[in-house]
C-alpha cells in the first residue's frame, strides 16, 4: 500500500534491535485518515469471505481494526493483554511470548463475543516472529470459529512470522512488507 509505505519512509525511525518506531501515526499518535485508508484496503482484500468478526490485540491493533470493521460492517473484538476487573471468567486465553520484551504474557477474550458461528479476520499492527498472531489463532481455534485470514499493517519480512503463518495455508495480507532495517534505512520487499 503506497500511501502507508510513504508514511513509513517519512516518519518511521529505525531503533537498535531491528525495531521500527511508528509512534507518530500507529503506535501512539494515530492518523485517522491513514487508518481509514488501511481499513478500506483490508476490507477490499478480505471481501466476499463472509467475515462476521474482526479479532485484534490491544492496543495498537484497535485503530486499523475499527476502520476495517466499519467498512465490512462487522464488530471488532480486542484481546486483552492484562486481566480486566470485568472480564474474569468465561474466557479464552493464550500465551504470547514477546522476543522484544523477553516475557510471556497471557491474552484473553470473552467467550461471549467469538463463537463457533463466526468467520474471523485477525488484524494486528506488526508481525515479527508471529507470536502475537499465533495467540490470536489459538483463540479462534478454541472458539471453534472459522478463519477468513490474517491482515497485518506492517510485516517485518526478515523475521519468521510471515513464513510460519503462510506455511499453514492461511490467507495472510500485509500492507507494507519490510525487507530490511539495516543501517537505519527502511527497505521494502517488492510487491508480489
Ligand atoms: P511478534 O509476536 O510477531 O513477534 O511481534 C508482534 C508484536 O510485537 C506486535 O504486536 C508489536 O506490538 C510488536 N512489534 C514487533 N516488532 C515491532 C517493531 O519493529 N516496531 C513496533 N512498533 N512494534 C513491534
UniProtKB/TrEMBL annotation:
Keyword Glycosyltransferase: yes
UniProt-annotated binding residues for xanthine: 20, 27, 156
UniProt-annotated location(s): Cytoplasm
Catalysed reactions, as listed in the record: XMP + diphosphate = xanthine + 5-phospho-alpha-D-ribose 1-diphosphate
Binding site for 5-phospho-alpha-D-ribose 1-diphosphate: 128-132
Protein's pathway: Purine metabolism; XMP biosynthesis via salvage pathway; XMP from xanthine: step 1/1
UniProt keyword annotation of Cytoplasm present: yes
InterPro entries named among the record's database cross-references: PRTase-like, PRTase_dom, Pur/Pyrimidine_PRTase, Xanthine_PRibTrfase
Main location: cytoplasm
GO cellular component, one term: cytoplasm
GO MF assignments: xanthine phosphoribosyltransferase activity
GO biological process entries: purine ribonucleoside salvage; xanthine metabolic process; XMP salvage
EC number(s) from the headed UniProt entry: 2.4.2.22
Record PANTHER family: HYPOXANTHINE/GUANINE PHOSPHORIBOSYLTRANSFERASE (PTHR43864), XANTHINE PHOSPHORIBOSYLTRANSFERASE (PTHR43864:SF1)
Assembly with partners or alone: Homodimer.
Protein name: Xanthine phosphoribosyltransferase
